[in-house]
Design goal:
Helix content is 71%, strand content 1%. The chain is mainly alpha-helical. Pfam families: Otopetrin.
Length: 580
């Protein structure tokens, strides 16, 4: 990537300096972009992404069924090629921008915050472990598998490492060279992440469907059903009898949720980079707020304690649910597990809804101004919150219709109906609370006595008693300073200023408690469905009403969006906590 527009940028800068010299009283404005038609470049990159996404979606969905002549190694071949192209482009981007001094003229301070990049690295580590387990699993019987099955996880591991490094150092870039190539490269990266996400979701859904069939049927009937309908992985046809092979197989399926979240996190960050291509930041209106994350300061610990109680209780419910539902065939234990699951979620969702309503009421008394500046990161956060919530909305409304229209109704149906209604209410109230928090200006410190406090804090290491001995109580010694226009420093003021902590108003404290409680509660509500607690497949009401084919398809399509919503809400609530 060269510096093709270097001379043009120099002439543009000289013309701007000349224009500023004629108008010395006007503040410097944002430089005008040299791009003739920004929307044309964006449109071309979007069309490229749409076609690649449709191709990948077609192959991934076709590869999940036996009667369609598309195999899983065809899907892996396409994904491998796409990841290799993205790796080459990222290396090209990093080398090109490092050699061109005018490639990145400004950075977006709101893009790629540290907690988002930290979450990306956490999910990347688990994704690498998953790839190691995949390589070990497929290597156990490489003689009866296609080579692409082993090449794919190796390439995916390299892709995760390169992309994570790229997003860590370049998430804030506003690129100004080779704009169309950069846009197409970023859209290709985004599409590749979405294709990997679709493949992981499909593979996980097929695996769970096979597990439930195996639990209730003999091996011969199971293989016959696979031939009639859903495809088994090509690895299923090979013998995996050793203990190490079973560990690898179960291990990488348990790590799928982390890889799914990694792909979605990376897609969101790449989209913000794509929006920032060719963008100039107006530093006069684009304020950079350096906020410090203090978890255990200026808090009552109520939100943290309640959130930890919910988190630990949810982990206990998850373990009992997995043992009683997935490891037992007795209907009584299944009913007990469903009852326990619904009661816990009803309590949790009810508390979260009340807390969100309370937070929205507190915002009515908040005196901070609304932040109306252009912010692609915040716009994407709001869009993802609203869009991802549609998945859980769809499941809840389908459940409500099935429960109301079905007969007879039992206690589990009543709990399921309450759970669905509270799920809709909690998503709605939480979105309102988060979106309003993201649009608030950070708190401004009180600068009323800054000059006075600066003089006082300069004496931090001075002996207080010595100061009080040398300054008379009458204040006559301070009279010259007062006459000269500065405020006199009294010893009692000095002691109060050095010993009294900074005050935080009650609104900010309550907003922090609410944000921390919601953050921890969303973590457990992400963990439970991501690691197997899915009552939609275990409750017979929806299955009997919609059928064994329609209802699983609805859940498989909508549930990944609901799971992503929880993790994205955690990141957004962390930002609301820091901004409060």
């Amino acid at each position: 990537m060269g510096c093709g527009h270097k001379d043009d940028k120099a002439s543009l800068a000289s013309s701007q300096i000349a224009s500023f010299s004629h108008q010395p009283h006007q503040p410097p404005s944002t430089p005008a972009s040299k791009e003739v038609w920004k929307k044309g470049g964006r449109m071309f990159s979007i069309l490229l992404a749409v076609h690649l996404a449709l191709l990948a979606c077609t192959l991934v969905s076709s590869g999940a069924f036996e009667k369609i002549a598309v195999h899983d190694y065809d899907v892996f071949f396409l994904l491998t090629v796409m990841m290799l192209i993205v790796i080459i482009w990222i290396i090209f981007y990093l080398v090109g921008t490092s050699r061109c001094p005018d490639a990145i003229l400004c950075k977006d301070s709101h893009a790629g915050p540290i907690w988002l990049r930290g979450g990306l690295i956490l999910f990347a580590i688990f994704s690498l472990v998953m790839d190691v387990f995949k390589i070990g699993y497929y290597s156990s019987f490489y003689s009866c598998l296609s080579a692409i099955k082993i090449i794919y996880p190796i390439v995916q591991a390299i892709f995760v490492v390169v992309q994570t490094y790229f997003l860590w150092i370049s998430a804030k870039d506003c690129v100004h060279v080779h704009l169309n190539v950069t846009r197409c490269g970023l859209m290709l990266t985004l599409t590749t992440n979405l294709a990997v996400w679709m493949s992981a979701v499909t593979d996980e859904s097929v695996h769970k469907a096979h597990s439930k069939l195996k639990k209730n049927m003999t091996e011969e009937i199971f293989r016959w059903i696979l031939k009639a309908g859903m495809r088994s992985s090509s690895a299923e046809e090979c013998n995996c009898n050793s203990q190490i092979c079973q560990i690898f197989k179960n291990g990488y399926f348990w790590l799928y949720p982390f890889n799914i979240e990694y792909s979605l996190f990376a897609s969101a960050m790449v989209y913000v980079m794509w929006k920032n291509v060719g963008r100039f930041i107006d530093h006069h209106s684009h304020h950079t707020h350096r906020l410090k994350f203090r978890l255990f300061r200026r808090t009552f610990f109520v939100g943290i304690v309640l959130g930890l109680i919910i988190l630990v209780s949810g982990l206990g419910v998850l373990i009992l649910y997995e043992v009683q539902v997935n490891s037992s065939t007795e209907s009584s234990k299944k009913s007990q597990a469903l009852t326990m699951y619904y009661i816990f979620n009803i309590v949790c969702l009810g508390l979260m809804s009340l807390v969100c309503i309370g937070g929205s009421v507190i915002y009515r008394f908040d005196k901070r101004d609304m932040d109306r500046h252009k912010n692609p990161t915040r716009t994407l956060d709001v869009a993802l919150l609203m869009g991802a919530a549609l998945g859980q909305y769809a499941i809840s409304y389908y459940s409500i219709v099935a429960i109301v229209a079905s007969t007879p109704r039992d206690a589990i149906s009543a709990l399921n109906l309450t759970y669905a209604l509270l799920m809709i209410a909690q998503h709605t109230f939480q979105n309102i609370f988060i979106i309003e928090g993201l649009h608030r200006q950070p708190p401004k410190e009180d600068h009323k006595h800054d000059s006075h406090q600066k003089d006082l804090y300069g004496l931090t290491f001075v002996n207080i008693n010595a100061v009080s001995l040398r300054v008379p109580d009458s204040g006559s010694a301070l009279a010259p300073s007062a006459a000269s226009g500065t405020e006199a420093i009294h010893p009692s003021d000095l002691v109060r200023s050095l010993t009294a902590p900074k005050k935080m108003n009650w609104r900010r404290k309550f907003l922090r408690e609410i944000s921390m409680f919601l953050l921890l509660s969303n973590i457990i509500l992400w963990i439970m469905p991501a690691f197997g607690a899915r009552p939609q497949f275990d409750n017979d009401t929806e299955l009997n009403f919609y059928g064994d084919s329609m209802w699983p398809a609805i859940v498989d399509i909508c549930l990944p969006f609901g799971i992503f919503y929880r993790m994205h809400a955690v990141a957004s609530l962390l930002e609301v906590y820091i901004m409060s």
